[in-house]
Amino acid sequence: MKQKIDREKETVQLMICLYCKHIEKNAQLCESCKQLIEYAHKRLDGCRFGENKPACNHCDVHCYKPEMRKRIRQVMRKIGPRMIWYAPKAALLHLLGR
Q1: Is 75 exposed, middle or buried (0-12, 13-18, 19+ CB in 10 A)?
Q2: Which residue, among 41, 80, 81, has the nearest Cα to 64 in the 3D structure?
Q3: Half-sphere exposure of residue 74: CA atoms within 13 angstroms, side-chain side
Q4: pTM of the model
Q5: Which residues, 6 or more positions from 72, have their beta carbon under 8 angstroms from its beta carbon?
């Protein structure tokens, strides 16, 4: 069974890739989105709560820099509702917290 942090990394990467492709209309992952993925993975690796971490929007400790937090929120708002169409399995697992 995959660890929660690993699943979150996969989910955030998938969401950023979908955002880059469907919202920004890029054929390949742009440099800005690559940087956001790297940043998100680094933050997840360093999460002080580890496997017991809450969803980032419910966390008391905001470890993202303001600009990166703004960018990840934008991705989540645009792609989150569309995840059920683009990646139904990932969307359901994310909603169920598994």
Answers
A1: buried
A2: 41
A3: 12
A4: 0.87
A5: 12, 36, 40, 56, 64
